[in-house]
Every structure is written in structure tokens, then in C-alpha cells.
């Protein structure tokens, strides 16, 4: 057994703790080993101190036989910190210049053990030097608003860093802001534009120097800012201030391309967000956002200097602004706390009255929640929104440190005796903590073993991140157990230096450990200086009219080709906000993933540049090891290749804006009347893509929401929100514009109501453009006040009539964790179904608002006074264990806008069962997903639960083509309780079954499909100019060879088509329409003569197109969800000019239960027709089919997840044994194709590498997998890979029948002919592609003659297809 790869916990096969993190000295010179009392040692961090000497910082994990450290020059040895039976020792040693890291470890008998590390040396550097190959810092159109504008990388001739760097000259337009983290031989400097700066510098140099005593270093860097002196003078045009939205606008004339106009706030000593939105080289419109955070009292005035930054910084305009006092809402004046211990789940109840959402804080022993009313409707028991009767139930542990429950609501401290609990005052114990790389250096398994004496472990926190809880338990229990979880560390890190690892138990006792370097990941950061290739496919692009696709290629010394990197073009301020520090975490940000491309032997990432961005260098992020870098970082590492430059004759980064508002005006309701808001919205050069508007009132925060979508050539629209006020349930209220958002076709987004929820507000969080900025006072001026002649006197919300749970006990460790929540409510004023109630699953282990699900209305309301809801919920694995789950409902409204909530404790006290007992009794293994498997064989991995910790007790059983192979410990490359990896041979079938057997208990059966990777040329093949396919000449002499970016494609002359122009279009009648599902079956016979008309021969061909399924794919390419289609709604939407057939269905999310509309339209073309899709002109040929697939919003479980749509394509005949088949695939003009050929006929499918995602053009990819091939039958599966989307995705593949100029014979390379078969070769087996627990059967070889008549033939084919599908589904 390979001890470095096996990661089980059995002592006899225990791996070295901290794989790649610890230093085992038998790896070093002189054959030294760690003494037996040292369990592990972290990698030393070597830095310089301010004397020029070095510091070595590292940690030891030692046993009780450790006494101390000796034989070192100077330093600090910190007292051991107990970690279960071991201790953590943090060490900081001083290394004189020229010394290596060397010291003695002493055991309890004072025996010394000398350790020397010659590779860790404090080098003598007589003169520190900058080794950057480039010294120009390239400016760029910065959208990621921070206190600094550039962060160049500085390389030195020493790997020992840590010394401070200061600016040695003021004669520069840039100044040093702060020093970022040093990495090996690279330091990242944070730099900002400086003001005032009035001394011209010929080279725009930035001078830096180190301050270490033994060396004075001067570093010169230049910027590419152009000198505005001598150029046409900048002229300030119109200036407008919009204080109500904290914005201003300014027109600037005669902009110089490589200069910058910035706004500098003197009082804050930093820039404010100020950026161009519309213009050209004559005039640019700039938008600014006030800098600062509102406080309890007004602030200002702030003085702003708007400056032209070039080689000098002359002021253009000086303005001032002030910030109003922050609107504060008083906390409640009273509150109550009670404790209930009479049910299986104990709980505390907090009640109060909240006026105008005034609640700043809720603190309990388990969590702290700032501004709890931001989670409305949670906690709203009754009343109206302006005065809420607040009630929440806090699930309690059965254990506590004391006999009192403490809480704080606003400024009120609440204390209540907590009877009937078990005392636990002892903190948990942590035994070890591991980081174990899996398939690549960014996929890491985190494992720890912890114990607790009484209450059990609740959660493990590293740094500031909760990383493990009871759901990650793989062995033992919460009293003594092993925890494992897999993390993607591409954009994530666990940093514990100067922070703690904390383990809490269920009585809130905490163990805190403060290591220096031991429990951090990564320990060795990626070396930016090792990048030796870095370039963009299109470094300069004209995007004046259309956007363009681009790609970044890069590599580094000795690349790990399994590694992943993040990249993102920051083309809009919405993207900038998503990547700011105050929004989410790095692992949830929507990076585009750069991975190794075998075809070019480089890392590659594709991305789209939308049209009409401002000319200049674009802003982008390159992400590795949880750190973001930009254009300026790579400027000094790779030079001009770091720049991504565009040109636009007329730039448009302005989102659609509101130019006029009309309202119904104030209303007095005598009888039913209509409130309306009408908005006139315009766009300049881009098109309006979408508008969302919400009108709310002080009583109705949900309000009335309208969503509008628009097509191309939409520059101006008038949209409205209108609704009826019923006189019978009229309540006085004032309606206002709660939110208005717009988006244009280039993705520029505006929103009037973006609020970043941050405990520590950051003034440098990017602001989002407000589309209502021209109506600065719209919150007070654009109102509709409604008064009632007969106001409703109803003050009571809906009343519950029934409440049921489908189970009172749930095994949260099993595969089936479904619960159905059903309830009925009644209200004489009528139920407001516009307000969707929310179901909350509450547990002691969760925070303030735990798992929540919208309730589903199931009974159509003939009587508006009664409503019934029934909601299926999939409970997360181990959620609520061991104390139970409370099921609460909040957010019920009646038509008089009275609220009603149903917390689980109140339901329980009302004789409804609202508590689910949770158990952990299922002991069998569970397979949840697998790594995509190569059809050529290789390494295979499965992910799941409860694989155990002893690999000797585990068997992985694979059934491939009815042959079973068992894999045991000796085959496992890596093993853990949730992950097993091992090699398997090339599979025979297109799918295989996997089971895991642990101690004779068998898991679920998991079906795995295979994929075939593209065939790549040998790496030694010389690079020659690309040539087009064709024989005897390129494009078969029937077209022109077009070469673009080292790719050659044929542009065929009509009527020739195909990848090599050797095919002709075959005219066939329009196929019959299948009214049940969007399958297209084309039956045809070959021509009897040279004409292209069908003959009367008895040979029939049948082609088939079918949409198989939709899948949600995780970042590791495993399948998370797989959706098949049960029923379609069909409609003929043809016109005189087109033949189009529409099919509609829904897929329901397996977790969230939300529905996504799948809209498929099939269009038949009789003639050549040009269509436009995703900024691309596509020529449709006669007798061709085009599919268009449109998806409505889908709720991805993670922003890094993607989607696959899977097609089946097939061609078959009743030909003789002399028939031959061939499958071809490739790309023509960047579009993928698959060609299934029989004899001299081909079924040709074109899959466009473009999609319209959320209204914008996106690059996508396709995977084509051979499914089956016989002499008279051929089929393939095509997977279209769609990026993560929010609103919509549109795809556009097409298909046609062709005649091959050269029929397929046994001499054709890659052909399959009956005459080629070896004796004994079996007939085609059932071929399928299956992910998860759902199987698809598709097509078998033609073993009987096809029926001559086409209708019977089609019926027979579909019947066979359905029979095979049903057989596999069983």
C-alpha cells in the first residue's frame, strides 16, 4: 500500500499527517529523521527582519516526551499548547546572515536531537536587486473599486522577504498605498494615483526602496500614462449633482486615451468611485458616487478634486458633497424570554413588538445576528409590517454550561432559567487536522478527529470559516469521531496564522488553538514569477459594433496539468460588485475556470468581451490560491502580454435609465380603483434586455413585481406596474418605488436598491448605478397615497385550520430524507396568495435563519377565504441531528395586509406536531456522485457517505457488460470515508454499474456513463500551417480553405456542404411531426439515379434526433442532478413563412422544488435561409432541421455549477451486410459537428459553440460521445455544456441529410463493415448513457429488416426505443 496515497484512518496504514504540509526529515540530506516524540512539523516560513537577518517561523506537533529546543542563536519558543494527547509548539528562530536553519530538540531526559535544514538559509545579499523582466505598469479601465488602483508584482534576487518597502521619490503620478502579502520571491505592492501632482516627469517613474539596514534598494517603475501637457486640453462640460442617490455626473471633452480622470476626496485621502459610462474621443460622460459611510450624525462637507492624471495631475473641477445622518430605527422597548422543555426538542421563545423594523441585534449563546428584520418574514408572528408582533423559537441543546439561557434583543438583555439540562463544562479535544490533495492540488480533503466528553461536538471552525459539522462525520459519533469534507481550494484558503482553530461542543464550550503555520492551506503559495507563457488570443479587438470571443493562454515552469485557475473579465460594475470583498466568499464567486488544454499544451480559459466597452486596457482578475491579481500585476511579469486592449468608436457602459415617470396620483378608494406607475426607459447604443420593477408600501414590503424581457433593436420602452385596490379590504397606505433594475444587451446593470449587508461597512465596496438617478428624490416625490372611504377593520391575520408533517421521525443519514409539509389557513378577508409563505426548518446546529423553502399552493382558490399548501422538502444530510428539527411557517398575509406566522413551538402548543425527531440509524454506504470516466480506461473516483475508515472492509463492485469486477484495498490509490479512487480498465459497455460494499452492507447502485476524449496529435509533431480536409485537394475542390488562428475550415460552394465539401444536400420531404415529444425522425430512400430525388428502392434510412435529459454539473464535473422529461405540451406555431413546432415541459429542482420551463421549438427549412444567432450569421440549407432550446430561470445549488443538455442522434438502415458505417466529428468555423454515415448517406448535426445566456452571448462547448456503431446503424450522444445562468439560456443546434460523393467502404479509415467483424463478435449490446440513478436506453443494431412502408418503420423504431428505455429504467 502506498502510504502517501492511502488516506484511511486505520493505524497500520495511517498516512503521514499533513501530506505535503509536514516535513519528514528523511527527505533531507544526512539521513536525518524526526525524533519519535515529534509527530509532525510545518514548512518553515523564512522572512527578513529589519536588520537584514532572517526569521524562521514554524510549528511542531509533539508528544509528552518533548522537553524543549536548544542550540540556536536567538528566538522565541512558545509554551506548548495541548491538543489532546499531543501539544502544539510554535517556534520563531533568528537566523544570522549566511546561517542555515539548525537547532536541537530535547526529550524529557535532555537528550539532544540535532536537526539541520540546509535548504533554509539566510542568504548573504550584498545588493538586493529587482529581477523583473519588465518595468512598465500598464494602466487599465479599473472597475474593481478599492483604495488603490494598481498592484504590481515586484521580483527580487532573494527569496527571503518580509522587509518593508517605501516610496523614495514623490516625483511620480503613483504612490505606495500599502504593502500586500509577500510570496516567495514576489512582493505585491498596492499603489494609488496621487494628487496633487504638478511636476512633470519625463518617464512617469515610480521609485521604491527597501529600508533594511544592510542594503538600500532603489526600484524604478514607469507607468504608461500619457502626458496631457501639449495635448488638447481637457475641458469640463456640464456637471450635475444628485444628492438623493449620492451620485453626480460630469461631461469631459477631449479625453486623452491613456490618461485617467479621477476624483480624489481630500478628507478620506483616497479616491471615490468615478467612471466613464458613455462617450467617444470627443466627449465622455462620467458618473461619480459619494465616498463614505453614513453615521448617526451628518458628515461633510467633503472636498473633491476631479483630476486629469497623466504625467502631471492638473485639477479639472472641485466640488463638495455631504452625507446625511444615517436613518436609525429605535430598538424595541421591551421583550420576553421563556424556555419550554416539555417536547422532544426544547426551545426558548423570544417575543417583542417591532415598530418600523427597528431591531439592530439579536444575540444568543449560539449566534449573533445583526439587523434581524432583514430576514423578514422570519419572526413576524402577527400584526402589520409597521408594527410586528415578533416571536421566534430557538431550538436548544439538551446540554449547557449553566442553568440560564441568555439572549439580547436590541439593547435588552434577557436571562431565563433553563431547567432539565445536563451540565457540560469541559471543552472538546482535537487530535489532528489534515489537508489531503485528491485529483489535483486544488481539490483537498480536510480531515480531523475530535472528541467531547458529554454533549458532543457541534462545529469546527478554521480561521473565520465554519468547515466541519455533524454532517461531515465519517466514523464514530459526536463524542469521538472522524470528520471529512472535500473543498475546492482554487479560490479559497484556510488561513489560521494569527487566527484560531475552534471546536465547539453542544454546550458551547470551545477549544481554541492558535497555530502559526501548522493548520493552514496552502502552505506553499503558487509562484507568480514561475509563469513563463501568458498571452491573449486577441490582444487588440475592435468592439465598436459586435462583441468577440477571446481566450487566455498561459503556463508556468513544470506545470501541474491537473491544476485549475480562476479568471474573470470585469466588464461591468455588477461583476465588480460580485468580486468585491463584501459580497460572498471567493469560493462562491463566478470565476471562469482555466484548465489544461492538451491540444496546445497550455492552460486556457475562454471568455466573451461584450461590445462597446470603453477603449483601452480592460480590467480582469486572475485567481490562484485565494488571491486575485490584475493587469498591473502581470505588467511587470509578462510585459505587454498582460494587456487586453479594445477599441470602441462610441462606448456605451451606461445601463438603461429612467427618463420619465407617470403615476396614477393619490387615490381615495370609494370603489375598486387602479394604482399605476409608468416608466419611460431609454438606452443609447446597446439594446434594453430586461427591466424589473417592484412597487411596495409601508404595509406591504413584498409589493407588486413586474418583469419585462426585450429582444433586439430595443432602445426605448414604456413599461408599467398597475394593480387594483379592493374597496372591500382597503387599508390606507403609501406606495413607492421599492426597486427598479435594468440591464442592457452588454450586461450593464443598474439597480435602485442594492444594499450590501456587512458587519463592518466598507466605503470601497463598488456602487451599482441607480437607473432613477435623474429623479434624485424619487423616494419622496414619486409616491401614490391611498386613503379609504371605508377602511378595513380586520386586524387579524390568517388562521391555521390544519398542519401536518408526513413523518414525525426522520433518518437524516439515509438516502430518502423527504418530508411533506401540509397546512390550511382561512381568513374572512381573503388569503393573499401573492404573498408566498416560507417554511423554515429550525435546529440547534443552525444559525438565525436556517434552511428555508417557499410553500407551494396546491388547491385552486374558488373561495378566497381558504388556502391549502403542500410542500415536498428534501432535508439536508444529517440536518438537525441529534436534537431534532422544528418546522415553522412565516409570511402568511390576508388581503387586508395582516400578517401571520406559525413558529414551531406555537404550533406544537396548539396541538399540531411541528417537531421532527432525527435519528442516525442507516449504516449502509451511499454513492452520491463520481468523477467523469474516460472511455479509454484510467483512474476512476466515487464520492459518497459512510465508506468507513478501514479499507480492508470495503469492496467496490463494478458491473460492465454483465461482467462483475471487485476492487479491494490493494487497488485503492486513495481511500477515505467519502472518497475512493482506483484504476479500472477500458469499459466494454457505454455505461457501467457501481456499488460499494462495507462489512457486507451494499450501497445503492450508481450508473456511470463514459466519455471519449478527443484524439490529439503526438507532442512531437512539428507545427505546420493548418490545412483543410478534402481529397484529392483541400475542400475536395468544391470550396475555399479559410485559415483563422491556426485553424482551417472549408467554405463550400453550393450545393456542396460538409467539413470537406465532399457532400451534397439531399432533398427529403418534411418529416411528420411527433405531437408527444420533440423527437425528429426523417425516413428516406436513396436516389436510383444521379438525380437527388428519392427512388423506389426497398432500402430505407431512418435518422433520429431526441433530447434525452438536462443535468446540473458540479465544478469537478460530477453530476449533481439529472432531469428526464415525462410529458410535453405540443403546439404548431407555423406561419406562411415558416414551419415551427413548439414543445413545452417543466423540470422540478430536486432540492428547491422550483420549476424551470423547457421550451423547444423545431423549425424545418425548405430553402437556403440565413438566420442570426448570438451575433453569428448561420446559413440553413434545404431539408434541414433547427432545434431551439430555451430555458427559464434554474436555481443552481452553487454559482460554480453548470448545466448539460444531452441529445441522441442516430442513423440506421435496413441495408444488407455489405453496408458500412462511419462516425466523424470535429469543428468547422468554431462550430462542432457530428456526422453519422451509412454507405453514401450522412446525418449531419451542427452544434454551435455559442449560446445566449442571460441575454448575452456566451461561448459554450459540446462533447460528442459515440454510442454505438454497426455496419447499418450508428448513434452518438451530444452534450451541450451551458455556463451557470440566472434568467435564461438559449441554444440553437441544427441537422440535415447529406449525400457523400465517396461511399463508405471497408477501405475507409475508421469505417465499420460486416466484412471486418471478427468471428464470434456479438451483436450490438444495449448502449446507454446514465448519470445518477436514471438510465437511458437508446437504440440497438438493426437485427431485422426494416418494414418497407415509412409509417410502420417509424412506429417500429420508436417502439424499440421506448422498450429499451423502459427496460433500463427498471
TrEMBL record:
Sequence ranges assigned to domain EGF-like in this UniProt record: 1024-1062
Entry keyword set: Disulfide bond, EGF-like domain, Membrane, Transmembrane, Transmembrane helix
Name of the molecule in the record: EGF-like domain-containing protein
Keyword GTP-binding in annotation: no
Keyword hit for Hydrolase: no
Classification lineage: Eukaryota, Amoebozoa, Evosea, Eumycetozoa, Dictyostelia
Cystine crosslinks: 1052-1061
Transmembrane residue ranges: 1326-1349
Coiled-coil intervals, chain numbering: none
InterPro entries, A to Z: ComC_SSD, DUF7034, DUF7035, DUF7743, EGF
Domain of life, per lineage: Eukaryota
Leader sequence segment: none
Amino acid at each position: 500500500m502506498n502510504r502517501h496515497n492511502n488516506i484511511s484512518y486505520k493505524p497500520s496504514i495511517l498516512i503521514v499527517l499533513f501530506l505535503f504540509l509536514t516535513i519528514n526529515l528523511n527527505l533531507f540530506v544526512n539521513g536525518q529523521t524526526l525524533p519519535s516524540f515529534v509527530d509532525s512539523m510545518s514548512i518553515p516560513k523564512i522572512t527578513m527582519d529589519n536588520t537584514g537577518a532572517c526569521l524562521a517561523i514554524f510549528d511542531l506537533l509533539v508528544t509528552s516526551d518533548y522537553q524543549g529546543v536548544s542550540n540556536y542563536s536567538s528566538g522565541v519558543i512558545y509554551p506548548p499548547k495541548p491538543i489532546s494527547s499531543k501539544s502544539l509548539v510554535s517556534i520563531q528562530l533568528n537566523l544570522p546572515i549566511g546561517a542555515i536553519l539548525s537547532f536541537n530538540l530535547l526529550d524529557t531526559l535532555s537528550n539532544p536531537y540535532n536537526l539541520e535544514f540546509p535548504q533554509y538559509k539566510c542568504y548573504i545579499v550584498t545588493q538586493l536587486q529587482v529581477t523583473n523582466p519588465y518595468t512598465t505598469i500598464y494602466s487599465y479601465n479599473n472597475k474593481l473599486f478599492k483604495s488603490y488602483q494598481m498592484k504590481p508584482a515586484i521580483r527580487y534576487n532573494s527569496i527571503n522577504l518580509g522587509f518593508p518597502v517605501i516610496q523614495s521619490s514623490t516625483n511620480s503620478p503613483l504612490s505606495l498605498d500599502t504593502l500586500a502579502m509577500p510570496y516567495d520571491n514576489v512582493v505585491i505592492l498596492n499603489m494609488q494615483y496621487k494628487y496633487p501632482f504638478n511636476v512633470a516627469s519625463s518617464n512617469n517613474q515610480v521609485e521604491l526602496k527597501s529600508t533594511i539596514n544592510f542594503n538600500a534598494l532603489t526600484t524604478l517603475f514607469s507607468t504608461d500614462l500619457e502626458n496631457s501637457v501639449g495635448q488638447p486640453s481637457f475641458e469640463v462640460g456640464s456637471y450635475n449633482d444628485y444628492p438623493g442617490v449620492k451620485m453626480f455626473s460630469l461631461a469631459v471633452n477631449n479625453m486623452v486615451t491613456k490618461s485617467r480622470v479621477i476624483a480624489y476626496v481630500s478628507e478620506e485621502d483616497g479616491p471615490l468611485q468615478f467612471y466613464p459610462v458613455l462617450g467617444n474621443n470627443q466627449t465622455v460622460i462620467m458618473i461619480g458616487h459619494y465616498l463614505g459611510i453614513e453615521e448617526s450624525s451628518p458628515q461633510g462637507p467633503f472636498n473633491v478634486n476631479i483630476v486629469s492624471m497623466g504625467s502631471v495631475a492638473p485639477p479639472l473641477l472641485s466640488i463638495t458633497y455631504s452625507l446625511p445622518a444615517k436613518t436609525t430605527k429605535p430598538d424595541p422597548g421591551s421583550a420576553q424570554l421563556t424556555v419550554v422543555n416539555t417536547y422532544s426538542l426544547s426551545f426558548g421563545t423570544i417575543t417583542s413588538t417591532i415598530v418600523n423594523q427597528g431591531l439592530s441585534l439579536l444575540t444568543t449563546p449560539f449566534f449573533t445576528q445583526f439587523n434581524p428584520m432583514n430576514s423578514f418574514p422570519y419572526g413576524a408572528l402577527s400584526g402589520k409590517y409597521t408594527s410586528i408582533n415578533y416571536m421566534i423559537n430557538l431550538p436548544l441543546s439538551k446540554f449547557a454550561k449553566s442553568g440560564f439561557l441568555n439572549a439580547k434583543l436590541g439593547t435588552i438583555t434577557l436571562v431565563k432559567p433553563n431547567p432539565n439540562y445536563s451540565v457540560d463544562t469541559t471543552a472538546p479535544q482535537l487530535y489532528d487536522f489534515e489537508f489531503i490533495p485528491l485529483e489535483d492540488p486544488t481539490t483537498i480533503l480536510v480531515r480531523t478527529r475530535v472528541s467531547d466528553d458529554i454533549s458532543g461536538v457541534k462545529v469546527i471552525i478554521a480561521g473565520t470559516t465554519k468547515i466541519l459539522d455533524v454532517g461531515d462525520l465519517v466514523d464514530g459519533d459526536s463524542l469521538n469521531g472522524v470528520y471529512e469534507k472535500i473543498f475546492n481550494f482554487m479560490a479559497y484558503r484556510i488561513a489560521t496564522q494569527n487566527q484560531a482553530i475552534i471546536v465547539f461542543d453542544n454546550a458551547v464550550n470551545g477549544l481554541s488553538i492558535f497555530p502559526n503555520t501548522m493548520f493552514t492551506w496552502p502552505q506553499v503559495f503558487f509562484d507568480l514569477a514561475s509563469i513563463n507563457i501568458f498571452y491573449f488570443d486577441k490582444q487588440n479587438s475592435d468592439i465598436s459594433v459586435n462583441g468577440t470571443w477571446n481566450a487566455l493562454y498561459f503556463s508556468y515552469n513544470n506545470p501541474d496539468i491537473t491544476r485549475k485557475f480562476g479568471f474573470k473579465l470585469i466588464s461591468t460594475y455588477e461583476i465588480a460588485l460580485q468580486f468585491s470583498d463584501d459580497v460572498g466568499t471567493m469560493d462562491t464567486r463566478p470565476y471562469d475556470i482555466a484548465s489544461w488544454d492538451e491540444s496546445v499544451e497550455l492552460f486556457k480559459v475562454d471568455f466573451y468581451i461584450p461590445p462597446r466597452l470603453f477603449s483601452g486596457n480592460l480590467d480582469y482578475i486572475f485567481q490562484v490560491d485565494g488571491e486575485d491579481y490584475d493587469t498591473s500585476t502581470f505588467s511587470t511579469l509578462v510585459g505587454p502580454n498582460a494587456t487586453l486592449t479594445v477599441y470602441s468608436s462610441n462606448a456605451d457602459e451606461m445601463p438603461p435609465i429612467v427618463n420619465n415617470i407617470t403615476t396614477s396620483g393619490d387615490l381615495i378608494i370609494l370603489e375598486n380603483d387602479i394604482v399605476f406607475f409608468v416608466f419611460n426607459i431609454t438606452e443609447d447604443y446597446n439594446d434594453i434586455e430586461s427591466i424589473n420593477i417592484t412597487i411596495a408600501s409601508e404595509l406591504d414590503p413584498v409589493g407588486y413585481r413586474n418583469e419585462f424581457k426585450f429582444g433586439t433593436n430595443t432602445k426605448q420602452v414604456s413599461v408599467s406596474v398597475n394593480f387594483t385596490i379592493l374597496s372591500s379590504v382597503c387599508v390606507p397606505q403609501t406606495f413607492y418605488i421599492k426597486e427598479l433594475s435594468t440591464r442592457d444587451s452588454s450586461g450593464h446593470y443598474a439597480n435602485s436598491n442594492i444594499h450590501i449587508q456587512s458587519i463592518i461597512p466598507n466605503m470601497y465596496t463598488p456602487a451599482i448605478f441607480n437607473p432613477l438617478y435623474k429623479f434624485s428624490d424619487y423616494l419622496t416625490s414619486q409616491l401614490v397615497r391611498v386613503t379609504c372611504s371605508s377602511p378595513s377593520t380586520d386586524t387579524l391575520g390568517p388562521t391555521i385550520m390544519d398542519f401536518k408533517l408526513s413523518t414525525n421521525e426522520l433518518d437524516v443519514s439515509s438516502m430518502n430524507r423527504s418530508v411533506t409539509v401540509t397546512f390550511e389557513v382561512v381568513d374572512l378577508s381573503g388569503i393573499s396568495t401573492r404573498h408566498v409563505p416560507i417554511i423554515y426548518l429550525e435546529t440547534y446546529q443552525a444559525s438565525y435563519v436556517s434552511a428555508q423553502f417557499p410553500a407551494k399552493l396546491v388547491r385552486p382558490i374558488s373561495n378566497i377565504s381558504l388556502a391549502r399548501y403542500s410542500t415536498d422538502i428534501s432535508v439536508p444530510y444529517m440536518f438537525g441531528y441529534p436534537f431534532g428539527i422544528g418546522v415553522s411557517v412565516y409570511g402568511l398575509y390576508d388581503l387586508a395586509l395582516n400578517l401571520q406566522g406559525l413558529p414551531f413551538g406555537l404550533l406544537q402548543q396548539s396541538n399540531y406536531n411541528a417537531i421532527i425527531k432525527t435519528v442516525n440509524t442507516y449504516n449502509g454506504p451511499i454513492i452520491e456522485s463520481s468523477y467523469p470516466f474516460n472511455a479509454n480506461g484510467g483512474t476512476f473516483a466515487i464520492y459518497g457517505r459512510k465508506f468507513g475508515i478501514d479499507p480492508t472492509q470495503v469492496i467496490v463492485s463494478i458491473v460492465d457488460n454483465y461482467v462483475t469486477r471487485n476492487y479491494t484495498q490493494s487497488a485503492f490509490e486513495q481511500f477515505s470515508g467519502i472518497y475512493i479512487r482506483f484504476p479500472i480498465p477500458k469499459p466494454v459497455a457505454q455505461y457501467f454499474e457501481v456499488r460499494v460494499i462495507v462489512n457486507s452492507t451494499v450501497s445503492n447502485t450508481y450508473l456511470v456513463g463514459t466519455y471519449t476524449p478527443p484524439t490529439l496529435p503526438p507532442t512531437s509533431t512539428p507545427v505546420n500551417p493548418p490545412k483543410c480536409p478534402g481529397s484529392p485537394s483541400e475542400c475536395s475542390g468544391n470550396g475555399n480553405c479559410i485559415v483563422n488562428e491556426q485553424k482551417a475550415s472549408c467554405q463550400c460552394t453550393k450545393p456542396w456542404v460538409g467539413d470537406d465539401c465532399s457532400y451534397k444536400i439531399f432533398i427529403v420531404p418534411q418529416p411528420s411531426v411527433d405531437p408527444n415529444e420533440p423527437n425528429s425522425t426523417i425516413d428516406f430512400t436513396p436516389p436510383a439515379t444521379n438525380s437527388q430525388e428519392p427512388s423506389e428502392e426497398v432500402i430505407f434510412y431512418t435518422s433520429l434526433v431526441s433530447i434525452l435529459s438536462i443535468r446540473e454539473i458540479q465544478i469537478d464535473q460530477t453530476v449533481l442532478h439529472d432531469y428526464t422529461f415525462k410529458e410535453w405540451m405540443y403546439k404548431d406555431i407555423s406561419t406562411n413563412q415558416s414551419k415551427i413546432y413548439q414543445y413545452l415541459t417543466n423540470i422540478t429542482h430536486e432540492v428547491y422544488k422550483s420549476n424551470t420551463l423547457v421550451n423547444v421549438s423545431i423549425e424545418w427549412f425548405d430553402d437556403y435561409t440565413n438566420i442570426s444567432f448570438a451575433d453569428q450569421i448561420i446559413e440553413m440549407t434545404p431539408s434541414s432541421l433547427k432545434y431551439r432550446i430555451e430555458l427559464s430561470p434554474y436555481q443552481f445549488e452553487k454559482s460554480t455549477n453548470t448545466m448539460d443538455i444531452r441529445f441522441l442522434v442516430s442513423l440506421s438502415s435496413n441495408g444488407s451486410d455489405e453496408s458500412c458505417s462511419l462516425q466523424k466529428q470535429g469543428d468547422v468555423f468554431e462550430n462542432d459537428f457530428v456526422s453519422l454515415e451509412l454507405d453514401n448517406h450522412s446525418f449531419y448535426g451542427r452544434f454551435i459553440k455559442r449560446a445566449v445566456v442571460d441575454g448575452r452571448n456566451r461561448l459554450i462547448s459540446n462533447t460528442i460521445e459515440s454510442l454505438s456503431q454497426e455496419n447499418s446503424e450508428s448513434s452518438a450522444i451530444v452534450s451541450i455544456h451551458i455556463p451557470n445562468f440566472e434568467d435564461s439560456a438559449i441554444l440553437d443546434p441544427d441537422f440535415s441529410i447529406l449525400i457523400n460523393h465517396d461511399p463508405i467502404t471497408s477501405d475507409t479509415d475508421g469505417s465499420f463493415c460486416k466484412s471486418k467483424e471478427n468471428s464470434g463478435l456479438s451483436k450490438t449490446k444495449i448502449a446507454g448513457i446514465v448519470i445518477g440513478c436514471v438510465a437511458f436506453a437508446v437504440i440497438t443494431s438493426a437485427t431485422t429488416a426494416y418494414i418497407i412502408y415509412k409509417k410502420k418503420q417509424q412506429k417500429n423504431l420508436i417502439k424499440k426505443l421506448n422498450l429499451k428505455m423502459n427496460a433500463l429504467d427498471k
